[in-house]
Amino acid sequence: MIASRRIRRHGAPQPDNVLDNDRMDVTELLESASLLVPEDAATENQISVRDIWDHLAHDEWQIALTLLEELGDGPPQPLVFWEQLAEAAEQLHFPRSAAWCHWRCSEIRNGMIRADLTLRPATEARRRTPISAHGVLRPMWDIGNLSPSGGPAVSIAALWVEDVPLLEPGGRGIVRLVPLTPADWTRVETGQHITMHEDRTVAGTAVVLEVNLPNSATAPISLSNP
Prior knowledge:
The protein has 226 residues and is α+β, with helices and mostly antiparallel strands. 26% of the residues lie in helices and 30% in strands. It is built from five helices and ten strands; from the N terminus they run E-E-H-H-H-H-H-E-E-E-E-E-E-E-E. It has helices at residues 26-34, 49-57, 61-71, 79-91, 95-110, and strands spanning 2-7, 13-20, 112-119, 131-132, 140-146, 152-161, 166-167, 172-179, 193-197, 202-212. Strands 3-8-6-5-9-10 form a six-stranded antiparallel barrel. The protein has a two-stranded antiparallel sheet with strand order 1-2. Helix 1 runs parallel beside helix 3 (61-71), helix 1 packs antiparallel against helix 4 and helix 2 runs antiparallel to helix 3 (61-71). 32% of the residues are buried.
């Protein structure tokens, strides 16, 4: 059972004695997520969790959700933080926020490789249309691994492009990759050049900027709801 919480206008969420067997509603989800954020954490605009509590006290859920997402870009938050934000976004019918929060859950479970990707132009590649930036595409990547026969072995990773909804052929953007099999990526290093494939041809090239893999990168992990 979940303890219901209520926010006082100028304070943190306060527990009461009411117990609720139903799933948490939007306010409860956002309150619960906010309690996971250190009180001294702040966004680039110096918005803190206390400001979020004030927005929640006025039922300003969309603002609170957006600010919690921004706070999540600071010190790493636990998986439950992003799970609660994802559920709140779904209840509020904000598909973009829900997709992003589910994606962050996948990053925690599977790890994340950040890279500077340049797609080949349409005149040099099979793709003629833009790729969706929000985790839909799961291309293959040549990251230097070899097959038992000694040839290149590609590995699958979902792709999220930062700051834009689409990436055009020939375009360049910073991408976040979530590996299907984290163990395949343990030898990837910053500065390494990797290639993206949608078939046998090269669809793009990328330079690795950051590597964050889970501590136990040993087996395939589900990429559901990225």
